[in-house]
Amino acid sequence: MMDTARLDALRDEVLDWRYKGIPAAAHGLTVAEWLASGPPSPSLPTPLVSISDQALEHNLRAMAAWCADRGLALAPHGKATMAPQLWRRQLDAGAAAITVATSFQAGVARHFGVPRIVIANQIADPAELVRLSVWAGEGTAIGLFSDSALTFVRGAGGWAAPLDVYVELGNPGGRAGARSVKEALEVAAQIEAAPHLRLAGVAGYEGSVTGGTDAASIAAVDDYLGDLATLFEALDFETDRPVVSAGGSAYFDRVAAILGPLADRAEVLLRSGSYLVHDHGFYARMTPTARGGDGPELRPALEGRSRVIARPEPGLAILDGGRRDFPYDQDLPIPLGLKDTECPQISDQHLFLTGAVDGLAVGDTVRLGLSHPCTSFDKWRLIPVVDEETGTVVDAVRTFF
Length: 401
Known about the structure:
Blueprint: H1 4-9, H2 31-36, E1 48-52, H3 53-69, E2 73-74, H4 84-92, E3 98-100, H5 103-111, E4 116-119, H6 126-137, E5 141-146, H7 150-154, E6 163-169, H8 181-193, E7 197-204, H9 215-233, E8 243-246, H10 252-259, E9 267-270, H11 282-286, E10 302-313, E11 316-319, E12 334-335, E13 341-346, E14 351-355, E15 365-369, E16 382-386, E17 393-398
Parallel strand pairs: 1-16, 2-9, 3-4, 4-5, 5-6, 6-7, 7-8, 8-9
Antiparallel strand pairs: 1-10, 10-11, 10-15, 11-14, 12-15, 13-14, 16-17
């Protein structure tokens, strides 16, 4: 159960010039007062990113049901949104934990009362390890990854409670993680020998293996997950129900297929995060159903809106949104409802729209599909949630980056 008082206090924040995408008419009102007025979404200034309430709820329920049907637990990666209000909805829908990537993110989760936190990363700062140990001693369940016990040894002084550690298996050329099952077994032995650590599971990230969807890429993912299963089978854990964790937002069907059979002896914990809002680009291509795999049908819940501020030449419209507003690392924004147009270029505060744009005039607004939720939320401090049927803003999601 998260801290309801702290979550509710987010609606008591007073809106002012610090909140991009909020109309000036709302300045001086609390978030709750503004929402109570039933603001119509067309009244919001551009550039804007908003969330569809219906698509959000659909994705939330679809993923929860899919996991439950396969005996999988879900610890959605909170870094995708860094929005405690959305974490609460995920936990209320049955998520077992919230995953984060840094001690700062873990601090946000703890402040808002997330009862179980998975840190899917290495923590090398001794002071931060001690702080995590204190939180564990105060009742927050914390599990973190490791490919080396050395950092924990350096941080041994001042620990308040043992930490659950999942041995991370990586892949050659990837990011963190032991580079072989043999090396991972050596790390596990070091963890078992440390009095302030508890060997509680194994973990990995199959997305570091490949970014493809062809048969060879899927086979490489399966091979990696098979190695993770082998590592799990080779270890004796210091907990009654150890964790085996993998699963980004692209190949979680393969995690279910390869690691799912371990669910009778382990908590098979998916860490998919982008499923909640999905997208119009990267994950629209990569998600299991897009490539004929086993997965829930997801809907893009994020949408951008940008206004035409210039028509400097035929076939070109300049919009008022840019890299400060919309994601661009995994595809540029995609025009919605405009045939034969594209956004081939983006700069800090401008988006180029080309093609059949002759029907657009300065002042017109353009709807935009976005790609990669992880770099959508971080550009916005407050994101309106819109009822698709009425066009009314029904909530506002506060982010903490």
